[in-house]
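During the second year of the project, the team shifted from modelling isolated chains to modelling whole assemblies. The rationale, set out in the original proposal, was that interfaces cannot be judged from single-chain predictions alone. As a representative example for this report, we include one of the complexes processed in the last quarter. Its constituent sequences, exactly as entered into the pipeline, are reproduced here:
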Amino acid sequence: MRSNWWKILCVVLLAYAIIGGLLLPVPARHILNETIRNLYFHVPMWFGMMLLFGISFYHSLMYLRKQDMNYDIKAVAFLKIGVLFSCLGMLTGMEWAKYTWGEPWSNDPKQLATAICMLSYFAYLILRGGIKDEEKRAKISAVYNVFAFAMMIPLLFVLPRLVDSLHPGNGGNPGFNSYDLDSRMRLVFYPAVIGWFLLGYWISTLHVRINQINHKRDNTF
Amino acid sequence: MNQLISLVKKDLLIEWRQKHTLFGVLLYVGATVFAVYIMNGQPEVKVWNALFWITQLFVAVNSVAKSFLQEHPNRFRYYFTVVKPTTFLLAKMLYSMVLMMGISLISLFLFSILLGNPVIQTAVFVGVTAAGSLALSAVFTFLSAIAARAQQNAALMAILGFPLVIPVLMILSNLALSAISPVYQEGWGVMMLVLLALGVLVIILGLILFPFLWQE
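Output from the structure prediction step:
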């Protein structure tokens, strides 16, 4: 992915998502009103986060198989940007929840799941910070990343069974897909998802390249 | 198989000979329950349940932490010339499960003395406690291996483990609630299966990943 076309695409899509997202007409919904526009910013954060964590998981697996330092550098970079996305998603979600559900934190399973994801990936960063030797750090953190990711996936499916959800499409609430997310919104929503994900990927690759240079020059990063 | 049994036996024997650590954990449980009693008296049923599982969590961190952290790093080199890493991990997990189950039952006993005994269906509650000790000790044994390799203390294990076991604790307290209060819970059996499946998943993940931890 050294070429430039996808970076240009990313900028174009995001410009479209921001301008179109704020200006294009949206369906008028009770309670939601204009906050429905947050859909273009909040939901793509989650898609981006899951994809970035998934890519990081893949690189950790590859590190365990090949023991190549490049995989470790990539795993950390994607994971860090994933954590950034999860923080942004949490902030935009809490802001949205304050207007629609009445309070920023309402024990929603998706909120809980994200909080758990964030905690365990913060723990990953702390684990890395505690180990000096690089080979060892790479190996141990790869093992933890694989373990945490593989354990998280089933848990994320179990959680909604335990707590009622306020999110659309759960616990008797109508989903966006049924009538809210009409064709006008889809026109902005899908480009926004792709645009935000490409932005996350772009930031991660920059991080990877900086760390690769550091690794080559000082043998550390 | 023989190796597995003798490793578990060795750990339990060490535990019995170094009585101070075992009784240390027991005193820890006792002091915790007593502190809760002093703070709160006899709590209502739901709070009792929550307190019980929180206590289990901290007992797990404190007792299971020893499984890897108590051994001298040099001794691991010896073990790995003698047994396969997977056998070693399984032995450690079995040992922590036995230990954890014993301590859970003792803490249940202490809870029922000091904090009142709301349990209606004792067999169900003991079953849930057993399943819970299995899942908690499997997770924390593996994390204790990670913490030991990172040459860190039990605090790191807690940091790594708490986010991962929060959902497990939620499942456990929901399961246990049906043994405490006479509420009908839909899908109890499915939830129990999910919990056991999680335990098995953790063990399998541990067996796959543990050999990587031990390559030097």
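Chain B has a mean pLDDT of 85. Chain B touches chain A through 32 residues (CB under 8 Å).
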